[in-house]
Amino acid sequence: MNPVDARAAMVAELEKKDGLRPGPVRDALLALPREVLMPQAYVRRSAPGEEPPRWDLLDWSAPQDRPELLGLLYGGISVLVQHDGEPLLGRVRGTRSGASITSMSTVMGLTASLLQELDLRAGQRVLDIGTGTGVTAAVACQVCGDQGVVTLDRDRHLTDAATVRLAGRPRLPAGRGVRVRGRGVSRAGAVRPIFVSYAVERAPAALVDQLAPGGRLLAHVTSASPSWPGLAVVERTAEGRIAAELRAVEFAHRAGHGMERIWLSEEFRQRIATEPGTWAQRSMLAPPTDADRGLWLAADHLLGGLVRDFGAEHLVIGAPACGSWLRVEPVRRSRWDVTIHGPRDIWKEIQDLVVRWRAAGSPNRYRLLFEADGGQQAVSTCGRLSWQLPTPRPVDEGAST
Questions:
Q1: What is the set of domains in the chain, with CATH numbers?
Q2: Which of 129, 140, 187, 258 is placed for a possible disulfide with 196 were both Cys, Cβ 3.0 to 4.6 Å?
Q3: d(Cα 262, Cα 324) in Å, to the nearest integer?
């Protein structure tokens, strides 16, 4: 398959699975040669758990690499582009071992849906926070015109590569006039769409202040847990007022630089799967479903410290800080075996929150209120379920993704 056919196949899949609609974003994705923005990418060669991990850097200039690289670039998955914080320009293809992947291009379905949500239009001034591989900036250039696009990233190696690849290659349909900047606060002035391509703890107030009337900002908001993210959608009305909501979503960008993360270790997962727990019961109360995303978003903030094991067959949740865990398995219709371990009764915490969530109308979206003292609060429409987002920290606009 050649790149043109691969792009068409990728866009067709985005239409089928991710709701990509006819319009400027779709047209831009059809025109965007991803092999220009990502002429090199990593593929993992080591088995899960193998130490040290091994990756091969594939190079578009090497004919033997092109078939596999084409599948990576247009397969819709995350594309691994940086190992151990290295420069992207001047690399030699081959194997790397140890350390970790430090930058990747986001899953294409997520990027496409967010770009559609931004409602990009010709002539808009766009601020793209988190340049990464430059895909978002390239699409914005194609739709809005590259003279009004500013993209920032804290990783100089990423901005160096994006500058060269956006501006120096004639095959890109747009990008020569885009301004690529390194770490620091944006001086883009008032802009309409603002795209933040990494997760944050709250909507960045400094970016909200830059929204022009009619402008929209999108940023994923999460706690330290990666399990149940929200999407902050912030708009400034034609009259200058801010209207915002926090939507429960299934997937989100990776956390921004320096943001605390908690995980379930492999050893912890094994203990949850095999140990008997502190106590067990057979319950007629059903666990929340995966579709109850508004409930899980509230749990992420109101209960705190919980991580879901999405690789488990049934509901498994752990609290790494205290070692508590929950395992729920169906035994027959309307009956579940519930096993609890540790100082936290996670099952009771969740069931108590279910009652509150349902009393609030089972929302999947919450109003996001900006308070006079700088605080931010998520509130259900009826006001019966709410929580405060973390207190502000210095904005690091341009965190790498």
A1: 3-104 (no CATH), 108-248 (3.40.50.150), 266-359 (no CATH)
A2: 129
A3: 14
Q: In which region does residue 199 sit, left (phi positive, over 0), alpha (psi from -120 to 50) or beta (all else)? A: beta
The gap from C-alpha 371 to its chain's centroid, in whole angstroms, comes to: 26
What is residue 174's predicted lDDT score, i.e. its pLDDT?
55
Residue 395 banded pLDDT, cuts 50, 70, 90: very low
User: In 17-85, where do the E strands start and end?
Assistant: 40-44, 54-59, 79-83
Stretch (H or E) spanning 249: none
Residue 64 structure tokens: 């033997």
State whether the Cα torsion 65-48-313-104 is positive or negative: negative
**Ranges assigned E (strand) in 200-323:** 211-221, 230-236, 242-248, 279-283, 307-308, 315-319
Using one digit for the tens of pLDDT, what is the confidence trace for 350-374?
999 999 999 999 999 999 999 989 9
In terms of Cβ atoms closer than 10 Å to its own Cβ (0-12, 13-18, 19+), residue 266 is exposed
